[in-house]
Amino acid sequence: MHSTVDVTDTDREQRRDRVFDRLDDAEVGETVAVTADRDVHPTLSQYAIARDAALDRSYEQTGPEWEVHVTKRPPEEADDPYAFDVRNLPPARRHAVLTDTFDLLEPGESFVLVNDHDPEPLYHELSSTHGDVVGWSYEQESAGEWRVEISKTGEPAADDDGATATFDVREIPKPDRHPTIHHRFANLDAGDSLDVIAPHEPNPLRREFRQQYGDGFEWEVRERDPGEVRVRITKTDADGDRSEPDDANADENADADTEDLTVVQELDVRDRPPAQRHEAIFDAYADLDAGEAFVLVNDHDPKPLYHQFEAEAGPEFRWEYRARDPGEFRVLVGRADAADPQSSPPEDVEAPF
């Protein structure tokens, strides 16, 4: 005989509270049946980390209706630190679950993140909200399995400046800067803000925001000093997500000299974790011979990549939009003969910050 807890149709916080309360009441050896409309693996892992608990799990039913039987073992059998394997979680859920897990830690506590790629962007996101109390130690770096011990080394300093997060882009690798900021902005509530610190005002990022969010944000330069600009981006109530630009501008970035390029592959990166996308794209470009191209398929405008290619790839680099539809952007990325004249860059291109 076992007790039950139903967390169907609950949000993340409600689900966590109900499961935590029921497992707190359970005795060692007791089994709790958790029914849900999604996998509760993240919630159970958070409980094991926050309560230093040992749990046995048995999946009785999986998707779309889930039933998991959870049995408490003696506390001395708990893993220390607990290994939180997120490889089976959809990439879009991982950061939210992991930042939530870090919030549950007390100073001095830790867990080991197991991921299928280098989770460095998570470090920058955690640091943006918690400052210098994020401990980060790589234990394993291998294909398909990265293990990082993440610890909370102290209490985060109180921030009365009003920003939910602060990103100093000078400390973030260039390919991760824009994706990291967009991801954090997407998780803000209306009225919340994030600060971006850059060597100069990040106008390319501002244009990306205008294109994707329309009137859904406010942009304020709060400090402007030589070599350092602080910009506050506030999420407004406006429903401004507009990833599709006006048709009149659809071809503004087209290169006139791409007709002679031979397309050798289509690279669809939509199912890849965000941290793996740039690497796959740059690898595909490196494999091109002169006169070849590939078609990149992405779920949002990959404009930040243009800035990086334009700065690093040389005059033979070519870029042409083929489609700009919600959820599907198609761009021809090519390598022309180095002797060909370089095509004109898009009108709104500036150096990446």
UniProtKB/TrEMBL annotation:
Pfam families: DUF2249. Residues 246-260 have a biased composition (Acidic residues). Residues 230-245 have a biased composition (Basic and acidic residues). Residues 230-260, 334-353 are annotated as: Disordered. InterPro entries: DUF2249. Residues 4-72, 84-152, 166-235, 266-334 form the DUF2249 domain. It comes from the Archaea. This is DUF2249 family protein.
